[in-house]
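Saturday, quiet lab. Running sequence design on the structure tokens for the scaffold JK sent over.
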């Protein structure tokens, strides 16, 4: 009978150890998820800034092209 009690106690210890290991793994995964959330938020902010910068540069490009077009049309009209 004592042998069975030792086996049960051993198994309970193993189950408890596995439970602790899984709890540690869950906590590690939560920490990892939080780090990834922060990282993705940072990447999102940088992409938004890049998008705004590209929009401003596109507007400048269109403005320069329109100015050039108006100047060329004006030159052609003055010539003719």
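Result came back. Writing it out in full:
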């Amino acid at each position: 009978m004592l042998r069975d009690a030792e086996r049960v106690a051993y198994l309970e210890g193993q189950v408890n150890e596995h439970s602790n290991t899984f709890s540690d793994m869950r906590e590690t995964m939560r920490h990892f998820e939080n780090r990834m959330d922060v990282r993705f938020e940072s990447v999102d902010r940088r992409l938004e800034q890049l998008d705004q910068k590209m929009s401003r540069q596109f507007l400048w490009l269109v403005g320069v092209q329109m100015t050039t077009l108006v100047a060329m049309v004006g030159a052609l009209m003055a010539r003719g």
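Notes for JK: Residues 2-79 form the longest helix (78 residues). The chain has one helix and no strands. Ask whether to fix the surface positions before the next round.
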